[in-house]
Design goal:
alpha/beta; two-stranded parallel ribbon; Nucleotidyltransferase, domain 5
């Protein structure tokens, strides 16, 4: 005859099958989203600035390379078509906040031209990208170029 104490005994093992299922789902999610997070490599040399970047926001990015190529979210776009491409993206619901990344070799006039085209296309807020300077002089001190 069986003793009642053994029948009501608590099982001391942990079932790890649900944990394994969750971990595999998370692994698949990370594998799918990682390429979307990584930027396609447009090689530009950003100027440096003391200002710290704002919190990252998903916005449209216009990149000007030292060779004079213009990219909209890693797609090469001719300067003549830039306004039409931006207007089309804004009409389709893209965020009207635009980040402009220009190589430091790009002439100032070209960067201003891109700003003007983006504003005319409907950009609400324009942000210029820069690399942060290493800790150096305080804001009150002068900085030599």
């Amino acid at each position: 005859m069986r003793r009642p104490a053994q029948r009501n005994r608590v099982m001391g093992e942990i079932n790890i099958t649900p944990l394994t299922d969750v971990m595999l789902v998370l692994l698949v999610i990370f594998m799918v989203t990682t390429p979307l997070i990584m930027k396609a490599g447009i090689d530009i040399n950003l100027p440096k600035a003391h200002a710290q970047p704002d919190a990252p926001v998903q916005r449209l990015t216009i990149t000007l390379s030292a060779e004079g190529k213009v990219y909209v979210d890693n797609e090469v776009v001719g300067l003549e078509q830039l306004g039409a491409v931006l207007s089309e993206r804004f009409r389709k619901g893209a965020d009207p906040n635009v980040t402009i990344s220009a190589d430091k070799q790009v002439p100032y006039g070209e960067a201003v031209r891109i700003l003007d085209i983006a504003r005319q296309a409907g950009a609400a807020k324009l942000v210029l990208s820069a690399e942060p300077l290493p800790a150096g002089p305080s804001a009150g001190e002068s900085v030599k170029p």
